[in-house]
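Local shape tokens:
==================
===
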Amino acid sequence: MSSRLVGVGVGPGDPELVTVKGVNALREADVVVVPVMDTMERGRAEATVLHYVPEEKVVRVVFALNERSDRGRREAAWDAAGGRVAELLRAHDAVAFATIGDPNVYSTFTYLAQTIAELVPGTVVETVPGITAMQDLAARSGAVLTEGTEPLTLVPVTAGAAVLKDALAGPGTVVAYKFGRQAHEVAEALRETGRLADAVWGSALGLPEESVRPAADLDEAPLPYLSTLIAPARREGGRGGKL
């Protein structure tokens, strides 16, 4: 039989936001892989997983999660990580990979799955969806992501604040991921497009150090890298105006 690699979305950090299906997938797997940086500090995915499976079932694999300048080093780290997971798949019937948020939304898992397809042909790849940071922030802040026919645009600010500004100039709600290091530029983009007043940002959602605040409070101080922003659509015309 072919081995199975299951990408499990474990949400943005609050262990209560892992789905029942996600918990079952973690518990049914022979081992659960969690990505860590080369500093080896415990990440959100691992902390969440440990609420549901024993530590001896968890395998930490180093990924170049924080490497963006040295392509060679990043590629070498990816090859090593893929090789380690391939070893686990050859030894076990089912391997789960825990990823924060959703495994199909800006996730490490998508790259891993591509690597495994080459290293261990025939591996069955599955995913279990997870709650995303934008959903959690919307719930915690009261921001409505979409109404009626409004579009929703998701932008990783690692692509640059100019990409975010273009999105803010358009219709609908805009969500920005990973904007912490460019908080000042993001605040300027919101101000220039008239989207500052209703926007909200959050970090460490569901964790003791959680922060959920109006975007108007943004200043030049850097924020946590995984900060999330919601700039709701401009809504006029009353209830159901965009139906």
